[in-house]
């Protein structure tokens, strides 16, 4: 008698399991304990908690907490299969990395989130990496900082740096060339607009260029191997503005307009002598080893 | 008041008045002293100290105040006036450009003397200029020039206890007949015996300032806009006292009338409104529209102009001292006022490592400052603190001013040193020059003259040419650094 009861208990357990999974599938936002109790009112508490625990352990259900209420969510078993043969730690770490998406996640943040210690975490990460579940990507913002993300994801441009980076190296020559070309374009535009005559106001307004104008010019030049977006050009143009070679204004339609400008002052006195720009000025004094009477910089400056 | 300022003052005094005055000046620079105190510190005989002090006072380089006991006085150095001596060539040049040669000689003579009565000054100048000229007309000319220099406030009357405010720029009575008889050797006392005049540096600075602004505008825009700016400044003085940060209203019609009358800039007249527009719409706030009455009136934002110019000097300094990349970062910090290092890296388009290197180099040399904002420790977890870079212009200006003094000091020291090193050859050249001059007066033949001139060998001549070039370069550098000092001082004056 007791044996049959146990058997019927087992069969009812599998049916209850199906009911719960079905329920969870229908409600992607998650089901609470109350939902389950309402769905299977005649099953005792200890039985379905056992089933829930089993489901959680096998990864079919996930546990969440929302405003103090425990929620169970159904998890797609196709994703689960990827970490087959992994232990609990690996699953936790995998989940954390998965949540980080294309931006990736730093190892320290994983440690904080997973509460694993460093050696254990390193082991887990290594094993996940060899199984090709995840990959490490070097971030451009800090060369030593590695971020982890799922193996088949394309890293975000904030991680790779976009068009300006090649293998984590910033291509400064490329940016410099673009900076010069942008300035040249604006300067030429200014000169032609002055030559065209008309009033000074007209000449000024003609000399403004939008980023898309410059973008067109740069694309036609063909100096870039990669396809640059207008936004890329915009940031290059901003460096021209920062070099005080151009000014930027906002036009009525919310676009930035750029124009080549000149400075107020020609080179002033302090920078035309050696002392004003001397790197070891702080160590120079009248009777010191470095002194104005024998200073080599001044000698060079005087003799050229 | 700084170390290098003191050293620089010593050098300036040394060059112009010799070692004793320089040492007395140095003693007074340290702190104000009484006569006996000065004698004790310097160790010179009393007579010499007295002489030096009176020289300093005559040139308005020192002042004195009676002590409480009523018998002794404390002497104090006027530092600004000593530094001003470096600017004298510019003052003379300015007058030469604005007025004629006679006025220039008047200014020059007054600078030589420190202070002088009008009659004395005119006689002195007349003796210098009297070659090939009729004395009567020359004196008349000089008198007129003197009067115009006083009315234009280039000369100012030295104050005594009874001087009224309105007397400062009142033209004194000058008796021409008396002057010509004094020049012919009679010993009459001139009518304006006790009225002494000296230079009014403020007025010169005002002109130099205007010149600077006009040049800057011309540089940035074009000739016509520069001319417009000049007329605006000229009109400013009608309603505004010269040193206020923001001028009173200037009706634009007045300016237009002047452009019309002038007829020198047809382009400016044709597109007058547009030029005004350009000047107004520029992001640097040079002039600002303040009223619509009578076709619009504008204010000149002197303070803002000088702030802008000072920024540009600082940017140039960073640019030359470090790199264009550094000046890019510097400008970014300037634009954003407070900025995080990550944001700098994002915006300047440079490798992050280099950005870090440059920013911290700038920080090390005090061009940018750093402000760390820490969160309170109450919340657990890793604490993020914010690092913000910013620039304090006034502080930077003061540092740069100090650097300028040091540069000037270095340049002048070097000049002295080079002179000292090449003393022999320079002396020889002078001797040869005097001899050949003397012989020419005596009517020596061409052969004899070439003989004398050949005493300087070709290598020596070459060396002399080199020294001459060097001295010229050093002198030019001195004047240029003074330009920078002037601009920075203007900024501080408006601050």
UniProtKB/TrEMBL annotation, chain A:
InterPro entries in alphabetical order: RNA_pol_Rpc34, RNA_pol_Rpc34-like, WH-like_DNA-bd_sf, WH_DNA-bd_sf
Alphabetical list of Pfam families matching this protein: RNA_pol_Rpc34
Compartments reported by the entry: Nucleus
Chain segments annotated as coiled-coil in the UniProt record: none
Main location class: nucleus
Gene3D superfamilies according to UniProt: Winged helix-like DNA-binding domain superfamily/Winged helix DNA-binding domain (1.10.10.10)
Keywords tagged on the record: DNA-directed RNA polymerase, Nucleus, Transcription
Gene Ontology CC entries for this record: cytoplasm; nucleoplasm; RNA polymerase III complex
GO BP annotation list: transcription by RNA polymerase III
Family stated for the protein in its record: Belongs to the eukaryotic RPC34/RPC39 RNA polymerase subunit family.
Function field: DNA-dependent RNA polymerase catalyzes the transcription of DNA into RNA using the four ribonucleoside triphosphates as substrates. Specific peripheric component of RNA polymerase III which synthesizes small RNAs, such as 5S rRNA and tRNAs.
Full protein name: DNA-directed RNA polymerase III subunit RPC6
Automatic annotation (TrEMBL), chain B:
Organism name: Ignelater luminosus
Record protein name field: DNA-directed RNA polymerase III subunit RPC3
Domain RNA polymerase III subunit RPC82-related helix-turn-helix intervals: 9-64
Transmembrane segments: none
One GO molecular-function entry: single-stranded DNA binding
Protein purpose: DNA-dependent RNA polymerase catalyzes the transcription of DNA into RNA using the four ribonucleoside triphosphates as substrates. Specific core component of RNA polymerase III which synthesizes small RNAs, such as 5S rRNA and tRNAs.
UniProt entry tagged with the keyword Nucleus: yes
Family note: Belongs to the eukaryotic RPC3/POLR3C RNA polymerase subunit family.
Upper lineage: Eukaryota, Metazoa, Ecdysozoa, Arthropoda, Hexapoda
PANTHER family (UniProt xref): DNA-DIRECTED RNA POLYMERASE III SUBUNIT RPC3, RNA POLYMERASE III DNA DIRECTED -RELATED
GO cellular component: RNA polymerase III complex
GO biological process: DNA-templated transcription
Family annotation (InterPro entries): POLR3C_WHD, RNA_pol_III_RPC82-rel_HTH, RNA_pol_III_Rpc82_C, RPC3, WH-like_DNA-bd_sf
């Amino acid at each position: 008698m007791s044996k049959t009861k146990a058997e019927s208990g087992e069969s009812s357990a599998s049916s209850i399991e199906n009911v719960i999974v079905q329920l969870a599938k229908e409600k992607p936002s998650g089901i609470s304990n109350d939902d389950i109790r309402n769905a299977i009112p005649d099953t005792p508490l200890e039985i379905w908690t056992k089933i829930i625990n089993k489901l959680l352990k096998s990864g079919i259900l996930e546990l969440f907490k929302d405003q103090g209420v425990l929620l169970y969510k159904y998890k797609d078993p196709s994703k689960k299969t990827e970490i087959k043969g992994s232990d609990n730690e690996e699953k936790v770490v995998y989940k954390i990395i998965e949540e980080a998406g294309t931006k990736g996640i730093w190892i320290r943040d994983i440690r904080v989130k997973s509460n694993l210690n460093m050696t254990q975490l390193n082991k887990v990460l290594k094993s996940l990496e060899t199984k090709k579940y995840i990959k490490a990507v070097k971030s451009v913002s800090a060369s030593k900082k590695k971020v982890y993300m799922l193996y088949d994801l394309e890293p975000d441009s904030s991680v790779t740096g976009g068009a300006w980076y090649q293998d984590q190296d910033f291509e400064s020559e490329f940016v410099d060339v673009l900076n010069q070309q942008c300035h040249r374009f604006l300067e030429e535009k200014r000169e032609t607009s002055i030559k065209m005559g008309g009033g000074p106001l007209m000449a000024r307004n003609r000399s403004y260029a939008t980023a898309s104008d410059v973008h067109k010019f740069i694309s036609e030049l063909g100096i870039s191997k990669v396809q640059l977006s207008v936004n890329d050009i915009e940031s290059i143009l901003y460096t021209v503005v920062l070099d005080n070679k151009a000014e930027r204004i906002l036009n009525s339609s919310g676009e930035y307009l750029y124009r080549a400008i000149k400075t107020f002052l020609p080179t002033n006195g302090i920078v035309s002598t050696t002392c004003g720009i001397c790197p070891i000025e702080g160590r120079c004094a009248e009777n010191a080893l470095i002194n104005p009477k024998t200073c080599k910089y001044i000698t060079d400056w005087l003799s050229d | 008041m700084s170390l290098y300022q003191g050293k620089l003052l010593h050098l300036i005094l040394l060059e112009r008045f010799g070692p004793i005055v320089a040492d007395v000046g140095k003693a007074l620079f340290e702190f104000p002293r009484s006569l006996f105190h000065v004698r004790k510190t310097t160790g010179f005989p009393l007579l010499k100290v007295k002489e030096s002090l009176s020289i300093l006072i005559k040139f308005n380089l020192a002042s004195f105040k009676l002590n409480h006991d009523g018998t002794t006085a404390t002497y104090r150095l006027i530092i600004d006036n000593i530094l001003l001596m470096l600017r004298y060539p510019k003052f003379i040049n300015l007058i030469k450009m604005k007025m004629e040669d006679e006025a220039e000689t008047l200014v020059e003579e007054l600078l030589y003397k420190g202070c002088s009565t009008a009659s004395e000054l005119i006689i002195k100048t007349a003796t210098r200029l009297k070659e090939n000229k009729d004395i009567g007309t020359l004196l008349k000319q000089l008198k007129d020039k003197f009067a115009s220099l006083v009315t234009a406030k280039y000369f100012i009357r030295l104050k005594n206890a009874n001087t009224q405010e309105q007397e400062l720029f009142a033209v004194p009575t000058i008796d021409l007949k008396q002057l010509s008889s004094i020049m012919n050797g009679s010993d009459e006392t001139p009518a304006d015996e006790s009225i002494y005049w000296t230079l009014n540096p403020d007025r010169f600075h005002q002109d130099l300032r205007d010149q600077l602004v006009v040049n800057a505008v011309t540089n940035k825009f074009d000739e016509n806009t520069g001319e417009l700016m000049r007329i605006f400044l000229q009109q400013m003085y009608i309603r505004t006292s010269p040193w206020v940060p923001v001028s009173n209203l200037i009706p634009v019609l007045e300016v237009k009338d002047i452009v019309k009358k002038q007829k020198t800039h047809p382009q400016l007249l044709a597109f007058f409104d547009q030029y005004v527009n350009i000047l107004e719409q520029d992001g640097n706030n040079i002039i600002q529209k303040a009223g619509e009455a009578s076709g619009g009136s504008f204010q000149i934002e002197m303070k803002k102009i000088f702030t802008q110019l000072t920024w540009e000097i600082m940017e140039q300094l960073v640019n030359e001292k470090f790199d264009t990349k550094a000046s890019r970062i510097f400008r970014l910090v300037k634009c954003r006022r407070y900025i995080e290092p990550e944001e700098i890296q994002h915006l300047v388009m440079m490798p992050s490592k280099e950005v870090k290197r440059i920013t911290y180099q700038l920080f090390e040399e005090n061009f940018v400052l750093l402000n760390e904002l820490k969160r309170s420790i109450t919340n657990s977890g890793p604490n993020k603190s914010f690092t913000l870079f910013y620039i304090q212009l006034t502080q930077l200006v003061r540092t740069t001013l100090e650097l300028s003094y040091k540069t000037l000091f270095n340049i002048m020291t070097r000049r002295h040193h080079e002179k000292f090193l090449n003393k022999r050859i320079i002396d020889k050249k002078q001797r040869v020059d005097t001899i050949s001059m003397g012989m020419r007066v005596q009517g020596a033949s061409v052969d004899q003259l070439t003989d004398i001139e050949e005493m300087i060998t070709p290598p020596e001549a070459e060396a002399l040419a080199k020294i001459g070039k060097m001295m010229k370069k050093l002198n030019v550098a001195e004047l240029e650094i003074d330009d920078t000092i002037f601009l920075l001082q203007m900024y501080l004056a408006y601050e």
